[in-house]
Structure formats: C-alpha cells, structure tokens
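haha ok so turns out i had the wrong file open the whole time. this is the CORRECT one, sorry everyone. sequence first:
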Amino acid sequence: MTLFFDDFKNFPLGPFPHDPSHSAMGEYHYCPNKGEHGQWYDPIASYRYPAESFTYLITSPFMDERRCLEQMRLEKFTEKNAAPVLRAGDPDWKDYTLSVKLRVLSSAEGCGILFRYETSLHHYALFLVPGGISIVRVNELERLVLAHASYNWNCDDFYELSITAKGNKFTASINNEPILECEDALYSKGCIALSASMPTQYEWVRVVTSEEEAERLKQERDSKQKSLDLKRKNHESLKLHKKIDLKNFGAGRQIRFGHLTGTDEWFFVICQHQRRIHKDRYPFISCMTAVSLETGKVLWQIGTPRDDPDVINLTTDLPFQIIDIDNDGIDEVIASWDFSLFILDGRTGEIKKQVPLPTNSEDPKNLDGIEFGRHAFSRLNADAIRMVNISGNKTPTDILVKDRYARLYVYDRDLNLKWKFSHNNTGHFPYSHDFYGKGKEQIFSCYNMIDSDGKLIWKLPIDVDHTDEIIFGKIDPDYPEGILAIVAGWEGFMLIDLKGNILVRDIIGHAQRISTGNYCKDRKGYEICVSTYWENQGIIYFYDSKGKEIWHKEQLCNGNLISPVNWDGNGSDLILLNANIKHGGLMDGEGDIVISFPDDGHPDLCAEVINLTGDSRDEIVVWDRKQLWIYTQDGSSGNGYSPKKYPHYNASNYRGEYNFR
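then structure:
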C-alpha cells in the first residue's frame, strides 16, 4: 500500500519556497516560507546562507514533462552546520519502505534519504558517500555508522535507492539489489526526509507499507484522535475579546504593557524602528505610540509613524520599558534613542528626565561583539533596557542599559551612572534577582554573576557563544534556594546552582528559547520546555525539574514562543506555540495541541501572554503591522490559580518565561 508519493510534477519550475533573508525573525515571529511547498517542510534555518540564496530548485534536466527537486547547497557537516533537510510524511509511521530515484552530482559529502525521522537531529539515514553507501544513526551530535558497503556509483546516472525498516531491522537496496543490512532499536517510528550535503537531484519519492501495517496505523490514529478529543473537552476554547486597529503605527514584537495613567486601565506602547550601519546591529526607535487597550485610542505619540512593511522586520529588542520608577502610582516610560536615556511621563509622553549615554572610550579590541572591530559612534547605541534593583529599594528603580554584546551600564532613577561592567559577552537580556538574600539584586549576564556594585562574583567556564534566555526559581524541589536555567545556543541547555556549578548540560542543537511551568501536575517541581532555532530549527525538548528529557518533537514551523499560559486557572499550565491556525495553539505537557486558534482572520505574526481582563487567568494578545486582537476564555473563571510571572516592566524578546506558584 502506498503511503506517500511525489514526483514534483505539481510544482512550477524555479526556487522551492525558502526564507530569502535567513534571519532571526523566526526566533519569535511566525513567518512561514511563502509559496506552495506541497507535503514538504524545510526545518533548517542558517545565518550562513547568503541573502536571497535558496536550497532547493524544481528543475527538469530531462527536457520533458518530468521534474526533479535539486538540492543546491555545498555543505560540510559539522556539529554546528546542519545538512539540508526536507521532511514529509507521518511521525507515526513504523514499518515501511522508502524509495527514491536520485542522482548525486558530487561525491564529496553524503547524500540520500532519512527514515524513522523524529527531528533533524534524531533519525536514521541512508547515504551515498564517497566510494560506497552507509546506514547512519543521528542522535543530536552523535553520527554513528551502523553499516557500510563499498559501491562504485557515479555522478552521471540516476539510482533507485531504497531502505526497508521492519522492527529493528533495516535493509538497504540500490536498483532493487539488497546491499546492506543492520539492526538498531533507538528509533521505532518516524516520517521521512531528503538530505544532501552536495547538489543532488531527486526524480521521485515513494513510501509503501503492508496492508496490515496500514490498518495498524489507522487504528492507532483513531485511538489518538479520540484521546485528544477528550483532552480538548477539558479546556476552554478561545473567545475574541477585542480588536484594535494599529493604523500606521504598528510594529513587530516591540511592544510593552502598563498602566500609563495611574488607573487600572491597561495601555500598550509600541515602537517602530530604523536601522543604522549593518543589519539589526544598531537599530533605534523612530516612533513611539501609547494606546489604550480598552478603547484602542492613541494616548500620545512621539516621532513620525510610517506605513511600511519594514517596521516589523526587526530581530532584536528596542530599548524601552514601562514602570512606575518614582513610586507616584503612575507608570513612566524608560527609553533610549538618539544616544540619550529618557524618563517619559506615562500620561503625556513628555520628557521628565534626560541624560546622554556614555562615550565609547574603550579600545574595541578589548570588547566582545563590536561590529567591524571599531565603534560606529562616539556615544553608546543602546540595545536593550532592564529595570533592576541594586539600590535596595522596595521596587526596581535602577536602569540597566546594555549595548549589543559587550557592556552593561546601571543608572539610578535620577539618571546618575552607578557603574559599568564588561567581561566577555553580555548575552541578549541579563537577569536580575536578589539571589543571595542581601536586600539588593545581583545580575546574571551571559555566563557572569555580578554583585550589586558591579563586581564579578563568579563565571561559568564557558567563553564562546552567549546566553539567549535565562530563568531563575525553585524549579527543582531539591534546590529550595533556586537554580538558574539557561539556553546558550550551541553551548546548550543548562541548569546551574548559585555557586556557579553546572548541574545539567545538554547540547541539543542551537538552544534558543526556554520556559518553565506546572505543565504536568503529577510531577514534582516544574517542567522545563526548550526550543531550537539556528540550523536545526523548531525542535521542542521537554524536561522534568532535574533536567532529564521526557520527550522531544519537531514543529513544522518557526516562531514557537513556548510561553507558559495559565489558561484554565486550575493549577496546570499550557504552552503557547504561536497563533497560526494550523501549526500554532496551546500545547499540554504531553506535547498535544489541546487548544487551536480559530480560522477567523486573526493576525498570527506575533503573540504574547498577559493577564488583562481581571480574573486570575491569562489572555493571549496577537498582532501584526495592521491589527491587534485579544483572546480570552469562553467559559468560567477557574479556581483562582494565579502564578507568579515575569514582570511586565521587564519585557524582552529574549527573556525565558515562567509560571511559579
């Protein structure tokens, strides 16, 4: 019985859908590749790819009606350079035969097919390699050759390459002649993929199985669907609460929420940007708009808005926050533009205080991450702002300003510079907390623990890459003082105690985002969710409170926020992926999408979780350049469960999210 077949005749000649900019937008925006991709999905995102270049081409080398899919990149596999992959099929497939007709146009690297594919880092492979053919097991960074045979293939001929997986036994054939056999039990099921590190043409792809296996698969699907339907009945569905027209001042994930008039009314401030020098290294705020979430009316606006699609295409933070910094009951806006730091009146946007940012006096050779090896400006260009409490006040009244990757500066609420710090990389968004009970906050920045006076306490024994997101809390009951949980790109996911000891470290690809919550009520402590982006994107890992992996899965999209959501108000949290009707929704601790977004025309570029309507439960805000929608629950108010969440006055695209009791 045929489970899958594609001969690419339904695709027009030309580039296969791809990301033309190869940017970081997909880290926290849902931005799918445009165009018709049929049954296929490309899970590889690489900043190494030149702008506008593409991985796959639909072509016709036969000069007739036949088509080929051609992989066009030249890759050499390393742990940080993923081979191109194009996946299809059903993750629940178990026993099947995968066959392709292919021509490998260069023998320099392995090219072929993947089977029992769970993710781009978890699968088996059948590759034509220089001088032969190999069956390989890929398990994250491990690539184990299970079987190999010499075979004299060439770059001119098409070959029918087949692999049969039945139980733990695998049989490989070339042109219907068996050539390799081996056994392995790591992956019992999975879909399929094409993978080639050198130019390779695929004329067709076919997956077949027995009638018995097809019937087993049908029964398994029916059983899973019944179980999922029962789960979904236990959750309130999404109900549209409000729509707001963003007119000409919309933006991407450059938004902050607060109480700008000193009342219970919620407002948001949204910022547009312009770029300087190179890519997103030196963006600045070009327009700032304060809007009522209740009425949708503009409270005030600074700068000139522009109705330009580019205003959503920013892959960094902009430096602004909302907080009542002077404790008068009315929020201020703390922001930086034009090389100055400002405190703005939340009611009017008028400047209350202003100070120029520091001059760039340090030798750039002694700093980490200074673009082009020299300072672009005489003064600091602020990259992000965080509110901290190094003064020991009742609430955070100190302002941490950072540049892209090198330096931290801390000001008090009167805009007096208290200290600066520089040691290797800053990471994207430092974390602050009174970790040691001193009455003042310390700052964990990248791999450095910094005292409230700006002195280094300890650092992790890592000097490369940087921390993308950080969480701290009583995740593991055996560490009542709390532990740090971080993701640091190719340095992995880590759990760290307050002495700087690495308790757990898992290299899982480029670890990008992290969250923790009470995702499984029957487990002790809090579960941890981690996602990947660069190279092998969209893999979600789920861990227990001690950092032991429970499961992993690959989402068929980017923009997976993995934010914890107190949706039902019953003490169990869900995980927000994104707002897309097909690939998004709210996921439970078993990896099932238990709440989907309605097909009602809502925007799905951006999403955020915040409690807005007065009960203990969270709402979900979704928006794009033109409109902002708010969803709430279509039902009762739960039992009053109201977790401690990341404070709204420290918003960032690079903050790990948490729900703590």
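The longest strand covers residues 96-104.
again sry for the mixup
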